[in-house]
Each structure stands twice: as structure tokens, then as C-alpha cells.
Model the fold of this input.
Amino acid sequence: MINSVCGFGSTGSICVDIANSLEAEGHKCYIAYGQRNTTYHRAYKIGTKIENHLHNLQSRAFGNQGYYSKNGTRKLIDFIKELKPDVIHLHNLHGNYLHLETLFKYLSSYEGKIVWTLHDCWAFTGKCTHYTDVNCQKWQTQCYKCPQVHKYPPSIFFDRTRGMYQDKKKWFISINNPAIITVSNWLRQEVRKSFLKNKDIHMIYNWIDHRTFRPYGTSRDILDKYRLRGDIFTVITVSSSWTRGTVKWDDLTKLVSFFKDPIQFIVVGKINHKLELPPNCVYIDYVHNKIELAKLYNIADVYVHLSTEDTFGKVIAEAMSCGTPAIVYDSTACPEILGKNCGYVVSKRDVKGIKKAIEEVRKNKKSFYSDYCRNQVLTYFDYHTNVNKTIDIYKALV
Done:
């Protein structure tokens, strides 16, 4: 497998989950990754920290991401040639660690089978991972004059999206009949509008470790650690980061201002810059410990998801797996995660609608939704079922 990270974050955890399942069946799996570190025993680090740092600087300065790290990519290809794998499974290829032309020139002549899981929209755009907030549909024909040129992956000076779109289209369609996996029906429909539409496209939802994310009840140790109250209605919201001026931060501050009566908001995720939170908010930095995060979901009466652009929304399913209902925007793949009586879908950016949905949960009580939420996860996002669906694609190809 090739991914930006290994064992870290959502996509890095997914890679290790697949690898562990393969090894349990007696197969051998290697994960090549570009950023951070890992404890996975068969991992291959692509490039060096300096090479990846220079890639990041050049990408920002010149606007071309995926045009550097040539030496690291060549060494990766030598490593793959030595292994002679039956399957190469691509994941996130963006992140300043690969020379895309070199990689795909090799993949176009590779005689084994190729699977590519799309975790976002980057594979069929000129640069961006998401485009719905700016309502841009240029990726369906030709990217140019990017409305998000300064956003991830950021370019300080130049807009190279026209050329990058043409290059990515040429490189990516050169692979001979890869199996493409999307992580939601919404993303599958988007891929079918792109230059990848003629590829073999499958949909497999991401999975939840429901043995970890499960009902625990209210944990006294977590209440004490974070100085939380266990006697009032509690809302939890989770993000990898919170930054002033973003959709999530603006909607959070507006939502919190609507409630004057005793209600507790738990805000989880890295806060960038110095941001002031109202007194009824408890801020908790990014939680790496999954059991601890699960216990925080358990303490909450409802999970509120303020992201407007998600190809799956794993934190939504994690909360539901703990028996906590969710409130999401009617945007991208978020509504797919909810089933009957698992929470509420409100119009995009309708913060008053979120307030109304919170009041509905408070009236009905969390217990009304909990079994529905848990059953939704067990039915559609089961760890073993969905990992095995991925492995079944390998076996069908080999």
C-alpha cells in the first residue's frame, strides 16, 4: 500500500487495518508512507524528512504539488520491483512525498493488479481535495483560475491548476484497468462525472472498530481529567483542527451563542492560533487515544458535525457506534452515515436548524436513539465486513 501516513489519522489507520487482516490470513503486506512515523512492522519510509520538506516549500512557492521528491520515488519503485507484489493499493498520494510522473510511468507498465481507494476528491481535480463549498465544477472538464489556490494544497504565488489537471488526467488514466474504491455513494457519483468515470468503480464504506467505540456509560475518570460536568445536557463536536474564519469555527461560535441555559459543549481538536471559547465550552486538544475519545462520545448526549465537506465522516459513525445520536449538514456524504432515528440532517450552514435538532434530542433523550445508532454502525460500517470487501477485490483481481 502507498499512503501519505501509516498508522496515523484516518487513512493511516485504514491501511494498518487492512494490513493486519491480510496478515491474519497468512499474506504479507508492506505499507509505503511519506509523512510522520509509524510502529507498523513492515513499513517503508518514502524519501527523507529534508526531501519532503523541500517538496512542501517548492509546492507552495511554485504551485506544483507532486512534481518533486523524485529521488525518494525512484527508490520506492526499486523497493517495489524487489518485492514483486501481487497487488499495489494506492491511497492518498498528495502530501508532498511523491513524484507523480515517475510513479505513474512505472504503474502504467506494472504487470500486477492496482487498487486505488479515493478518500477525497484530489485524484480528479487540478489540486483541491474538496470543491463544494465554493461551488466549483471546473474539474468535470478543465481546471483553471482556481478559487481555492491558497487553500490545501496551498500555492503562494502561482495558479498551476490548468497544467496539473492535464498532467493528472494523462498520468492517472494511463493505468491499465485499476479497481477504484470510493468510501461513499456520494463520492462514487462524483467520480462518475470525472475523467476516471470509465474505470472499474466500487463503493466500500470506511469501517469503525465498534469494540473500541461502544457504549461505556459515563466515565468518572474522563469527567475528572477534563473537568467536565456529568449532570447537564452535553454536546460534543470533533475536528482535526479549529481555525478562525473557517466554516466550522464560525458555525460553532454562532451555535454556542444560541444557548443561555445550562448546557455543556465539548470541543475536541487542535485549535490554531489563540481563539476564545465561551464559558459553556470545554476545549480538549486532539485526542489520540481511541478509548478516551469513545468515552467522551459516551458522556455527550448528542454529536454535532459542523463540516460541510466530507467523503465519509468517520467521527459521525464513531459517535453513533457509542450510542450517541448525530446532527449533520445536508452536504456531501454526511447524510449517508445516518440511518433511521440516528439523529437529524439540517440544511447546510443552518445553525438555527442545528439548535432546533439539539432541542429535539434533549426532549426525546439520548436513550431513544442509542440502539438505532449502534445498529446502523454494525450493519453498514462493520470493521471485518468492510475490510474483507476490500480484500475480496484483491482476490478477484489476482
Remarks:
- The longest strand covers residues 234-242.
- The mean pLDDT is 95.
- The chain has two domains: 2-207+383-397, 220-380.
